[in-house]
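INTERNAL AUDIT FORM
Audit reference: QA-55
Scope: verify that the stored structure record matches its stored sequence.
Auditor: D.O.
Record contents follow.
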Amino acid sequence: MSELTGKLNAEQQLSGALNAQGCLSGRLSYIPGPPGPANVLSIGDVETGSEASASITGESPAQILNLVLPRGETGHGLVIRGTYATVEALEAAEPDPEQGWMYNVGSEAPYHVYMWDEELNEWTDQDTIQGPAGPTGESAYASAVVGGYTGTQSEFYADLAAMDGLAEALAAL
């Protein structure tokens, strides 16, 4: 069987030589065909393994990429190490911090959380860690009615006030 060898030039022509065995000699022009369908590569299996690897299965235009990825080390999570009234007090108390150390800063909640950033060589404000306010709960009286109480709201609060030791019991919670 003859073998076609050579290279393409800017005019999309193949140039080469036809030898005694029947290989190409001279110029060969060609017309490109229409584009084929776009390949669709979807994610298949993703597994944990000791070494990272990837394989592609299927035929174009529908192929599947399968991955094996090593598991990283378990992170430390969010740990607030303490609370200081000011950033200056934090800096004075922690002269040699480590990357990722976090402290509350402020005089009352919600505190600003400061994290040590080794790259910047400074404590950086991470803002506050507090979600939005939840919905207003029902009153103690409304809860009591749901629980079967049948008196008026005034009677309910009078009954609460008359209970001996209620304030101490609630304070112990």
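Auditor finding: record pair retrieved intact. The CA atoms of residues 58 and 78 lie 43 Å apart.
Action required: none
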